From TrEMBL:
Protein known as: ATP-binding cassette domain-containing protein
Organism: Streptomyces drozdowiczii
Residues annotated as domain ABC transporter: 4-247
PANTHER family reported in the protein's UniProt record: D,D-DIPEPTIDE TRANSPORT ATP-BINDING PROTEIN DDPF-RELATED (PTHR43776:SF7), TRANSPORT ATP-BINDING PROTEIN (PTHR43776)
Lineage of source species: Bacteria, Bacillati, Actinomycetota, Actinomycetes, Kitasatosporales
Protein keywords: ATP-binding, Nucleotide-binding, Transport
Family label: Belongs to the ABC transporter superfamily.
């Protein structure tokens, strides 16, 4: 379990009208083993914030603490160290998966980044990871293009989990999937979080979907957090007009009945 704390984080970007704060003094906290949902429309700064946490985007001001320790991402060694504790899954699984590697190869590679495993150990770990994300072991010898979008996203999840991170950042991971597949992947994410005791930053633009997996939800607009509350409170009594707009503008997500097959 990993704790994350972000204090007064500011990231500046340059757009057509000059420099602006894409993330503007954001503070947030994720307690170990809990999920913080981050919701907001396109361009509100969610991905920039995620990128800053893992050192992909330079920070102008503020601090990022993982388990109380300030994150450093300057050297390869720093980034490797951080990667052991924090993993990211993005909207498009194709960016995470090498098209020439089978599922087995991709998972075995990730599983051995920080751990030595012999041949039998690798096979066992691959089977375990596929089972964890609800995929049939028979898919192990397929290439990414031989899988559906939902299956590819599950492989990307398994790959991130292979290094046993304490914190998972999921950035719009269901947005590119068919609506019928989204609910099933969301349920898997929620189960994984609970089973593994993961801490999670779950980013999305669909408020009901984000609420489905989150303990607390932060609403982001124009680089700022405009409201943050426990999920139940936010749904029952949204305080900010923008949160109310987000709640009214999306269809309610259908949750598949228990036992429904993973698409
Ligand atoms: N590499 C970049 N260079 C300059 N500006 C950027 C860059 N990436 C993002 N931006 C700008 O920063 C702002 C925040 O973008 P960001 O992608 O973080 O938002 P988002 O909420 O994640 O949206 P989306 O869901 O569409 O990814 C936007 O105005 C965007 O145009």
């Amino acid at each position: 379990m990993t704790a994350l704390r972000v204090d007064g984080l500011t990231v500046r970007r340059t757009g057509p009208r000059g420099s602006f704060a894409a993330v503007d003094g954001v503070s947030l906290e994720i307690a170990p083993g809990t999920t913080l949902g981050l919701v907001g429309e396109s361009g509100s700064g969610k991905s920039t914030l995620a990128g800053a946490i893992v050192g992909l985007v330079p920070v102008r001001a503020g601090r990022i603490l993982v388990d109380g320790e300030e994150v450093r991402t300057r050297t390869v060694r720093d980034r490797r160290r951080l990667g052991r504790r924090v993993q990211v899954v993005l909207q498009d699984p194709d960016t995470a998966l090498d098209p020439r590697m089978t599922v087995r190869q991709a998972l075995a590679e990730a599983a051995t980044v920080f751990r030595r495993l012999d041949r039998a150990g690798r096979a066992e770990r691959v089977a375990e990871l596929l089972d964890l994300v609800g995929l049939d072991g028979r898919l192990a010898d397929r290439l990414p293009r031989q899988l559906s979008g939902g299956q590819r996203q599950r492989v990307a999840l398994a790959r991130a989990l292979a290094v046993e991170p304490g914190l998972l950042i999921a950035d719009e991971i269901t947005s590119a999937l068919d609506v019928s597949v989204q609910a099933s992947v969301l349920n898997t994410v929620r189960r994984l979080q609970q089973e593994l005791g993961l801490s999670m930053l779950f980013i999305g633009h669909n408020l009901p979907a984000v609420c489905h997996v989150s303990d607390t939800v932060a609403v982001m607009r124009n680089g700022r957090i405009v409201e943050s509350a426990p999920t139940g409170t936010l749904l029952r009594a949204p305080a900010h007009p923008y949160t109310r707009t987000l709640l009214e503008s999306v269809p309610v997500l259908r949750t598949p009945p228990a036992g429904e097959k993973n698409p």
